[in-house]
Specification:
This protein is an all-alpha fold and about 210 residues long. The chain contains 7 helices and no strands.
Length: about 210
Amino acid sequence: MLKRYSRQGGVNAMLLGIIDDKRKLIPALLILYILSWEFSLHVIFPVEAKLGWAISEHASILFLPAGVIFLSFYLLRWWFIPVVLIGRTYVNFDFYDIGFSWTFILESVFVCLIYPLWLTLLNSANWDVFGDKDRTSLTLIGAVIFQTMVTFTVSLSATILEITFGGLSWNESTQYIVHFIAGDVLGMGVVIFLFYKYMQIAVATRQPN
C-alpha cells in the first residue's frame, strides 16, 4: 500500500508540475477540451435528445467545454487563446462538418476577447474576482457571476447571428440564451469543482522533496 501511495504521489507531483509550466499546460488543457467535447457529444447530447429538449440542438444544458475554457483562462490568462482557437476549430470540423468558416473563426476570436474584457471591467470596479491580489476573494459565486456575464455576451451575439441566418426564430431566442447560460455555468461549475477537489488531493498526497 505504501508503494501504491508513493506512486500516486509521484503522478500527482507530475501533474502539479504541468500546471506550473505553460508549455505543458496549454496542450494538456487542449486535450482536456477535446475530451470534454467528445463526452458531451456522445453522452450528454444524446441524453438531452431523449429527454426531448429540442433547443439542445443549439445549446447544451451542461456544456463541459465551457468549463475547460474558464479553467484555461483562470490558469493561463491570455495564453488561453490557443486552447480556444484550436479547440473550437476542432469542434467546428467534428460537429458541424462544414470545413473552414470565417464566421466560426470570428466567433472564436470574440470569445478570446470577451474573457479578458470582463475580467478587466470587474477588476476596474475593484472586484478581484480571480483572487489575483487576495486569494480569499476567489469564490464560487464570483466565478458563476463572471461566467454568466461572459456567456450572456457570447450567447447574445450568437443568437443574433442565428436569427440573421435563419437558424433560430425570435420566439426561441430567449430560451436559447437562458439555455446557453445554464449550460456554460453548470459546465464551469462541474469542471471547477473537479479541479478544486483534484488539487486538494494532489497537494495532500504530494511527496515531500
